Amino acid sequence: MKTKYVLGFLFDDDKERVLLILKDHPDWQKGRFNGIGGIIEKGEEPGDAMHREAIEEASVDDVEWHEYQIIRTDDYELYCFKAFDTASLEAAETTAREVVTWAWIDNLPRCVSYTRDYLDAALGRKEW
């Protein structure tokens, strides 16, 4: 059975900043930034998982997540979400062991290899 994941990017209303998490696991992401996300639990719908992960990782509760892409491989499914809410982006805070911060989209810190492509797809700058 494939593992299912969610990945979400919370942008400000002007689409200039994005909320990122400094990953400390898994090893291949350690020390790099990525969006909010994680594993979809058994019986959970992707949208519900995205909402849960946002609360658990960044204290982000009151945003409307929109699914914009599903990536399917032989090993996993990744459901990608985006949201636009300046107040939530600025109010987000670290709630787990991984640090939450916002970054300028045009000047991203060291990210997981695919992060820029997924951000561009969320903003309509890139098609898959």
Number of DSSP strand runs: 7
CATH architecture: Alpha-Beta Complex
- Indicate the CATH class: Alpha Beta
Our count of domains comes out at 1
Proportion of strand residues: 25-35%
Query: For this structure, what is the CATH homologous superfamily?
Result: Nucleoside Triphosphate Pyrophosphohydrolase
Round the Cα radius of gyration to an integer and report it.
Answer: 13 Å
CA-CA gap between termini: 25 Å
Q: What do the pLDDT scores average to?
A: 93
Number of helices: 3
Ranges with pLDDT <50 over ≥5 residues?
none
- How would you describe the shape? globular
Secondary-structure element order, N to C: EEEEHEEHEH
CATH topology: Nucleoside Triphosphate Pyrophosphohydrolase
Q: Major sheet: size, sense and barrel closure? A: 4 strands, mixed
Helix content: 10-25%
Looking across the biggest beta sheet, what order are the strands in? 4-1-6-5
Helix/sheet category: alpha+beta
Characterise the protein shown here.
The chain has 128 residues and is of the alpha+beta class. The chain is built from three helices and seven strands; from the N terminus they run ββββαββαβα. The strands form two sheets. Strands 4-1-6-5 form a four-stranded mixed sheet, sandwiched between helices. The mean pLDDT is 93.
